[in-house]
């Protein structure tokens, strides 16, 4: 058993109350790993009090509802954060007010927060990492059908339905084990594929307003007025992030989404050239081919796009 896994199991065993958190604007893996761990802990330790925290209202709210947490909840609890690379993105600023803090993730471990960290960047998803923790636990942690359903959804989401290169042979082994449990995998895939009419129109907007350089670097800006026109929020806008990648002449791309404070959320993606260093330059980070950052204004947007162009041009 891995030393970090052993430490995590000791912390779980020694705490009566546990809170599970994830990152802001959650994607399927953030919710899948959070809700999956929640169900694993409830099933394995029925006598413990397990809660989940974060903002409700995501376009993925069908996956599960968060608890309303008090300061006292945190003061008496072990806090476990899944799928969150750095502390500013944790979806509750009280994350460090618990009795102890655990980080479980698959992003590069640039922000080494937590009393114990179990981070596997080679994993397809944090949901896959959780499966590995359970498999190492010597049956101390157990997976039921509810937990398997959530972990499966997380893996499907973060592998782009197994289209991305992060889907390894081990990923398929994990999925094979998860599917021995009683849940409808096809319904999850169908639900993850669903979009609203507004999201469909926004996809058309992105393609219509996409700037593509000769090198294959692409950019689109989604302003608040556009989100309002299509009756969408920032979480719902996330469904368009992968759209430019379907174009054969696009090698790497960035989608800027304006926030309510008029700054921008930055979504960087690439087919081969590494783009995570660009994200780090702008208060962000993430995977080599999929990262996020923040930008203050349109001048910074222009700077990020220039960095993306240089990255694509220099990549061989």
UniProtKB/TrEMBL annotation:
Residues 229-313 form the DHHA1 domain. InterPro entries: DDH_dom (IPR001667), DHH_sf (IPR038763), DHHA1_dom (IPR003156), Oligoribo/pAp-PDE_c-di-AMP_PDE (IPR051319). This is Phosphoesterase. GO terms for molecular function: nucleic acid binding. Transmembrane segments: none annotated. Residues 17-155 form the DDH domain.
